[in-house]
Amino acid sequence: MPKLSIVIPVYNEEELIAPVTEEIIKVIGSDPDYVEIIIINDGSTDKTELVLQRLKSKNPIMRVINFEKNAGQSAAMACGFFEARGEYVVTMDGDGQNDPSDIPKIIQRLNQFHVVCGIRSQRRDKFTKRISSKLAKWFRQKVLWDNIEDIGCSLKGFHRAPLQKLFFFDGSHRFLPILLEMEGYSVGQIKVNHRPRSAGVSKYTNLGRLTKTWMDLLGVYWMRKRKLNYRIRKSL
């Protein structure tokens, strides 16, 4: 069984997924006893599937899962988590904006925490996207009282066992550290590099993300308020 599973959901990333995968292998290596790379192709309509077939033929540590149709990032990540066999799971985007050289730092911090969240110290996104993220963070923290600096950073590390016990819903990928913290697991944070997208286009719009996140936020608020909270004083 590998020690590390890297989970990457992709949708229409035919230009970027090959260099991203090759860069990960340069950093982590290709020992199947240590690492597996699980790529979930979330119903791509471009040549992503063909590119992944070629990559898989050259890299035995890769596992490729092709969805019948687009199911969304939460579904893709949940599928990757349930397929993962490693002691640790690292998630990242397939668009090249996360830096694979940060993966060893994430893994090191997993010796101390159940969850490690990346913090993009210098975001390479458009101004409007950065502003909307800051507003969303402010509002989320007012509602949930969490201390996650950059919950939107896809580069995160987890212990696999807690992940596979979670209840997943559409939108849950945005709140994974909070959901795990609610279950009593420890959360650490670390600054990571962030790079500009070199090809393709983002699959999200600020308005579309805001509408979905608002509903998800209310759901997580309800879950936190209604969570059972008891401590056994004595058993006979």
Offer a quick outline of the entry.
This protein has 236 residues and is α/β, with parallel strands linked by helices. The protein has helices spanning 17-28, 48-58, 73-83, 103-109, 127-144, 160-163, 176-182, 206-226, and strands at residues 4-10, 35-41, 62-66, 88-91, 115-120, 156-159, 187-192. The protein is globular and about 60 Å long.
Question: What secondary-structure arrangement, pairings included, does this model have?
Answer:
Blueprint: E1 4-10, H1 17-28, E2 35-41, H2 48-58, E3 62-66, H3 73-83, E4 88-91, H4 103-109, E5 115-120, H5 127-144, E6 156-159, H6 160-163, H7 176-182, E7 187-192, H8 206-226
Parallel strand pairs: 1-2, 1-4, 2-3, 5-7
Antiparallel strand pairs: 4-6, 5-6
Helix pairs in contact: 5-8
Describe the 3D structure:
By secondary structure, this protein is α/β, with parallel strands linked by helices. It has one domain (4-127, 147-200): Spore Coat Polysaccharide Biosynthesis Protein SpsA, Chain A. Helices cover 39% and strands 17% of the residues. Helix 1 links the parallel strand 1 and strand 2. The radius of gyration is 18 Å and the shape is globular.
The biggest beta sheet is recorded as:
7 strands, mixed
Q: Any idea what the shape is?
A: globular
Q: What's the order of the H and E elements?
A: EHEHEHEHEHEHHEH
Number of domains: 1
Helix fraction? 25-40%
Strand order of the largest sheet: 3-2-1-4-6-5-7
Level-1 CATH class name: Alpha Beta
The radius of gyration computed from the alpha-carbon positions, rounded to a whole number of angstroms, is: 18 Å
Number of strands: 7
Which class of secondary structure composition applies to the elements? alpha/beta
Could you please say which CATH topology applies here?
Spore Coat Polysaccharide Biosynthesis Protein SpsA, Chain A
Tally of helical segments: 8
